[in-house]
Amino acid sequence: MLWSLYQRAVESRRSDAVLHDPDGVRIMEALDYDFAGHFGIPGGALAARAATIDRTLIDWLGEHPDGLVISLGEGLETQARRVDNGRMHWLSVDLPEAIRLREAFLPPTRRFRHLTMSALDPDWMERIDPVGPVFIVAQGLLMYLEPEAVGRLLGRAAACLPGARLVFDTIPPWLSWLTLLGLHQTARYRLPRMPWGIARDEIEPTLRRWCPGIGPVEMLPYGMPRGMPSAVSRFVTTAAVVRHQVPSLVLTSFGAGLVSH
Ligand SMILES: C[S@@+](CC[C@H](N)C(=O)[O-])C[C@H]1O[C@@H](n2cnc3c(N)ncnc32)[C@H](O)[C@@H]1O
User: Fold this and answer.
1) Residues whose beta carbon lies within 6 Å of some atom of ligand 1
2) What are the extents of the domains in the chain?
């Protein structure tokens, strides 16, 4: 949560920023934490990921200005403030410790609500009006869950919220394995366990198994925003041997059933 906040805030301060996140900068500056010492120099991929999701949400809100966005595992993300159209509603679902920290900087309002609950608890889905337009964001969350739990979560959400849009990101299996072995990003920061890894070409068949009737599955651009790392990530996503072994950002929608969003 702090690592992705740091990436967005550092990106936001650049003159060529791909993301403007003034609230992220405010929160980072207020936290007494050695971000650079723990995380090293941010490459900007997580900021670019957030910017792509922002654009997707803004497009959707253009069609559904009063829609509800549900952000699972939102941490200290300030996306609601970046895309707000003054009418939409937003629900952040996260664990108690994260919501406590979030509320120190981003107090809930009538339109921006918080739910202290695991995303794996189906109770949050049952509280949502299944007829209104819904967009579910799971940014930087699903890789931290066991694969079976991801399947149960998405399968239940598809059944409870037909027609809802969904965006989420994934990591490839090799990266998942490295985190299970104990991968250090810097000497002071060991990446948390990420048990769910999936190759890009497995994503669509897996989603179709978990959520029958799901709509088109689209891969959104996801990589370093500039420089040599950006060229390398563009090359990797086209190279035959490794092109499915990359992080992905996925956009889809649950089968509409009787409801159309
Ligand atoms: C890597 S952070 C990502 C935060 C935010 N989405 C972002 O992109 O900056 C993972 C977040 O998922 C939350 N999380 C982990 N397990 C969860 C669960 N079972 N239910 C809800 N949130 C969870 C953590 O508390 C944390 O806020």
Assistant:
1) 1, 4-5, 72-75, 77, 93-95, 98, 118-120, 139-141, 144
2) 60-253
- The answer to whether 71 and 142 are in contact (CB under 8 A) is no
| Nearest residue by C-alpha to atom 14 in ligand 1 | 73
What average pLDDT does the chain have? 94
Find the mean pLDDT for residues 226-238.
69
In the chain, % helix, strand, coil (3-state, to 5) comes to 40, 15, 40
pLDDT at 111 over 70: yes
Which one-letter amino acid corresponds to residue 42? P
Report yes or no: 102 and 78 within 8 Å, Cβ to Cβ.
no
Instruction: Give the tokens for residue 108.
Output: 């809930």
- Read off the tokens for 4: 């992705």
Please give the CATH superfamily to which domain 60-253 belongs.
Answer: Vaccinia Virus protein VP39 (3.40.50.150)
Query: 126 or 62: whose pLDDT is higher?
Result: 62
Could you tell me if 141 and 168 are in contact, meaning their C-beta atoms sit under 8 angstroms apart? Answer: yes
Ligand 1 atom closest to the Cα of residue 140 is 3
pLDDT at position 243: 83
What is the position in ligand 1's atom list of the atom closest to the CA of 192?
A: 1
One-character DSSP codes across 68-99: EEEEET-TT--HHHHH--SS-EEEEEE-HHHH
What is the C-alpha separation between 232 and 237, in angstroms, rounded? Answer: 9
Q: What DSSP string describes 126-177?
A: HTS-SSS-EEEEETT-GGGS-HHHHHHHHHHHHHHSTT-EEEEEEB-HHHHH
Structure tokens at 115: 């739910």
Shortest CA distance to 59 belongs to which of 215, 174, 167?
Answer: 167
- pTM for this one? 0.94
**165, 135 in Cβ contact below 8 A?**
yes
